[in-house]
Amino acid sequence: MNIGEAARASGVTAKMIRYYESVGLLMPRGRTDSGYRVYGMSEIHTLRFIRQARRLGFLVEDIRKLLALWQDHSRASAEVKAIALEHVAELDRRITELTAMRDTLTHLARHCHGDERPDCPILEQLACEAAEECSQTTD
């Protein structure tokens, strides 16, 4: 099948298929005489695997490792688990950072009158952070 058919079958856009090829996550079977890439069910399964891994937030390098382990039937599941737990730890770090951002913005928004006056603690905080001269956020 061609790249458009592979995109439809896998749920991955043609642009992303080309990207995955460029970073070495996917190798098409070959090309037609006119130079078009040819994909089979093996590539479709790989693309679906990549799509699911991306949905879970894995980075390309981790997907590369997971693909290698998926294709290695003598793999140790401990390796897969280690990659997954490392990713969970990274997600936890990001959740902590996002929670702090949300809490800061919520605090600033509560203290912004949201009226016709120009005073705005949100802008003041952004400006003082930019100038590196913040003391305390408005209480």
TrEMBL record:
What GO MF terms are annotated?
copper ion binding; DNA binding; DNA-binding transcription factor activity
Enumerate the NCBIfam families for this protein.
CueR
Q: Which SUPFAM superfamilies match?
A: Putative DNA-binding domain (SSF46955)
Does the keyword DNA-binding belong to this entry?
A: yes
Starting at the broadest rank, the lineage of the source organism is:
Bacteria, Pseudomonadati, Pseudomonadota, Betaproteobacteria, Burkholderiales
Question: What PROSITE patterns does this protein map onto?
Answer: HTH_MERR_1, HTH_MERR_2
Q: Name one GO cellular component term.
A: cytoplasm
Question: In which organism is this protein found?
Answer: Trinickia fusca
Cite the InterPro entries for this sequence. Answer: CueR, DNA-bd_dom_put_sf, MerR-type_HTH_dom, MerR_fam, Tscrpt_reg_MerR_DNA-bd
Q: What is this protein called?
A: Cu(I)-responsive transcriptional regulator
Query: Any one Gene Ontology biological process term?
Result: positive regulation of DNA-templated transcription
Primary gene name: cueR
